[in-house]
Structures are given as structure tokens and as C-alpha cells.
Design a protein that fits this description.
The chain has a domain at 50-152. It is built from four helices and four strands. By secondary structure, it is of the alpha+beta class. It has a four-stranded mixed sheet with strand order 1-4-3-2. The longest helix has 22 residues, at 2-23.
Length: 155
């Protein structure tokens, strides 16, 4: 029974990945930068070093400074095939990890994959869950960089 469930889950993930990444037309990427106020100092958008801890305080600090949290894996990731199948596999594995975590919801977090870069968007309950979402994404084979644009939901 367990293997039947895993097979059905894998088939459903494959169909979702195919539809999401192959059938869905993509708009051209729009590059935007943070809007700066006149006469304000420039915003520091450099990613924090990989050895900087993923604590709630560091997440809040980086979110307030740059509006996103960026972490790189320690060490270089080998060249990864940037095909639609690879992107779908990475997104499916990350979404499955979020589904298996009781506090994270894969419905509330959108996972976009571009080569070895993963971008997370959505809302979570607190900054600790942002750290957990980034860690789970970084622990996925083929992921070299995670950009978190997750926000803490206000109640």
C-alpha cells in the first residue's frame, strides 16, 4: 500500500511539474531594483555569507535591510543541467519537503527554479519558518542558491 501511495504521489508530482514548467507560457523576466528614497543611503543588497546563522534575528535584520534573504551553499555546486525536467524535479522535491513538514505549507510557498537558483515567495507564520524553508531548499540536490522573498504573515 505504501508503494502504491508513493507511485501515485510521484505521478501526480510529475504531471504537475510538466504542466507548470512545460505547458504554462512564461512572461519575460522583469529585473527591478529596490526603490530608493531621494537622498537616502544606498540599500545593501549583498547576500550574507553562507556561514551566517539562520536565526530569526538575522532573518529579520536582512529582510529589513534588503527585503529578501539570500544564502549560498558552502562550496560550488557542479554544473547542473538547466532543463525543464531538472527545474521540475528540484521544485517537486522542495514542495514535497514542505508538504511533509507540519509547520510549512507548500500551498503558501511558491518555488521558482532557475538553474541552480531557487526563489521562494509567499507567507509563513514566523521568521523561524523562513529559516527552515531556506534550509530545506538548500539541502536539495542541484540547488546552489536560495533567494527567500517569504514574508511573515500578520494576524
Amino acid at each position: 500500500m505504501k508503494y502504491l501511495f508513493l507511485f501515485l504521489f510521484g505521478a501526480a508530482c510529475g504531471v504537475f511539474g510538466y504542466i507548470h514548467f512545460v505547458e504554462t507560457p512564461r512572461e519575460a523576466a522583469v529585473v527591478s531594483s529596490p526603490v530608493e528614497k531621494p537622498h537616502s543611503p544606498p540599500v545593501d543588497t549583498t547576500p550574507a555569507p553562507a556561514d551566517k546563522p539562520l536565526s530569526a534575528a538575522s532573518i529579520k535584520d536582512e529582510l529589513s535591510r534588503t527585503g529578501q534573504v539570500v544564502r549560498h551553499k558552502a562550496g560550488e555546486v557542479g554544473a547542473t543541467l538547466a532543463s525543464a525536467t531538472q527545474r521540475a524535479r528540484i521544485a517537486t522535491v522542495i514542495n514535497a519537503k514542505y508538504t511533509l513538514d507540519r509547520d510549512l505549507s507548500s500551498r503558501a510557498i511558491d518555488v521558482d527554479v532557475d538553474g541552480t537558483k531557487v526563489t521562494l515567495r509567499g507567507t509563513v507564520a514566523n521568521a523561524d519558518l523562513i529559516a527552515r524553508a531556506i534550509t530545506l531548499a538548500l539541502d536539495t540536490e542541484g540547488v546552489g542558491e536560495v533567494v527567500s522573498q517569504l514574508t511573515v504573515e500578520t494576524r
